[in-house]
Design goal:
By secondary structure, the chain is mainly α. It is built from 3 helices and no strands. The radius of gyration is 23 Å and the shape is rod-shaped.
């Protein structure tokens, strides 16, 4: 296989777009890297990179906010328990 092959690059790009729309975006990011390696133009790849990065950051923010809210609930419950004297504070 040639180092830069537009047909293979186009196939990788299309597969990355399908993967991003239907499956995991992390795999789509790797497929886009392969598309660039095989000669896909960057102006075609950059918008999809942006969408994939946004989806990854959004998922990370959701995960972190969930754990933050869970921790806050535990702290509020502990304070409420001490005030109601369910737990004794020495």
């Amino acid at each position: 296989m040639k180092k830069t092959d537009p047909a293979v690059a186009s196939l990788f790009f299309d597969y990355a777009a399908l993967e991003a729309a239907t499956a995991t975006v992390e795999n789509a990011r790797q497929l886009l890297d392969l598309a660039v390696k095989f000669g896909c133009p960057m102006d075609k790849v950059l918008p999809l990179y942006g969408q994939i990065d946004h989806a990854i950051h959004l998922a990370l923010a959701k995960k972190l906010s969930f754990y933050g809210m869970l921790g806050l609930c535990v702290i509020v419950f502990m304070i409420y328990s001490v005030k109601r004297r369910w737990i004794r504070a020495y």
